[in-house]
Amino acid sequence: MSEWFETLPGLYDEVWNQLAQGAARKDVAAQQPTLSTISPDGWPESRTVVLRSADRSRSRLDAFTDVKSDKMASLASHPRAALHFWDAERALQVRIQATVAVCTGSSVADDWHALPDAARLSYGITPPPGQALSDALDYVKTPDQSRFCVLQLTVVHIDAVHLGKDHRRAIFTAANGWTGMWVSP
Ligand SMILES: Cc1cc2nc3c(=O)[nH]c(=O)nc-3n(C[C@H](O)[C@H](O)[C@H](O)COP(=O)(O)O)c2cc1C
């Protein structure tokens, strides 16, 4: 019986297993991945987000954000993102490339209504994220559904590295039907 990291299907299964766990639980690395985008003037930019859903059958990952956050301008000019997490417990690094669709309004009303009141406060801060303040706490948080946005990531490329006794690295792409191939780590 081989370990999950010793075969391409095993590694691919574990990547999606961790993404699914990340969308459901707080105690796994994939729950708070780093989402990277490209700014309108070409700078790479990264921030932590909460992974909200993971659907392997559709190669889809969702995150929530505020329509007035800076990442929106980045996604308007480059609708692509990278997602990264390092799972120290499993010695697994996952890097994902995805196209991004920005969804607002009635199409994401169910997600909004499912959010607890405290979580809704993250969407509607005044002044908007990134604006200058005269003092650190000189802002107010008022839930505003019109500020709520779902970033729908369609995964096109996965790079998985397992740092066990041996180091293994594999690449999985939509273009090759997710069968994967080993590459030098
Ligand atoms: C643990 C943690 C979780 C976060 N989750 C989210 C999130 O789910 N969505 C989000 O837009 N920002 C989240 N943030 C805030 C972002 O990291 C970032 O500061 C904010 O979105 C503004 O980014 P931007 O200026 O690049 O748009 C989180 C930050 C931390 C530290």
Largest sheet: 9 strands, antiparallel
Distance between the termini: 24 Å
**Helix/strand order, N-terminal first:** HEEEEHEEHHEEEEE
Structural class: alpha+beta
Q: What is the CATH topology?
A: Pnp Oxidase, Chain A
- Assign an overall shape: elongated
CATH architectural category: Roll
Detail the poorly predicted runs: none
What is the count of distinct domains? 1
* Secondary structure tally, helices: 4
Strand content: 35-45%
CATH fourth-tier homologous superfamily: Electron Transport, Fmn-binding Protein, Chain A
Mean pLDDT: 97
Name the hetero compounds present: flavin mononucleotide
Percent helix among the residues? Answer: 10-25%
Number of strands: 11
What's the level 1 CATH class? Mainly Beta
Radius of gyration: 18 Å
Furnish the topology, listing elements before pairings:
Blueprint: H1 8-24, E1 34-38, E2 44-48, E3 51-55, E4 60-66, H2 71-77, E5 80-87, E6 92-104, H3 109-114, H4 117-120, E7 125-126, E8 140-141, E9 148-163, E10 167-173, E11 181-183
Antiparallel strand pairs: 1-2, 1-5, 3-4, 4-9, 5-6, 6-9, 7-8, 9-10, 10-11
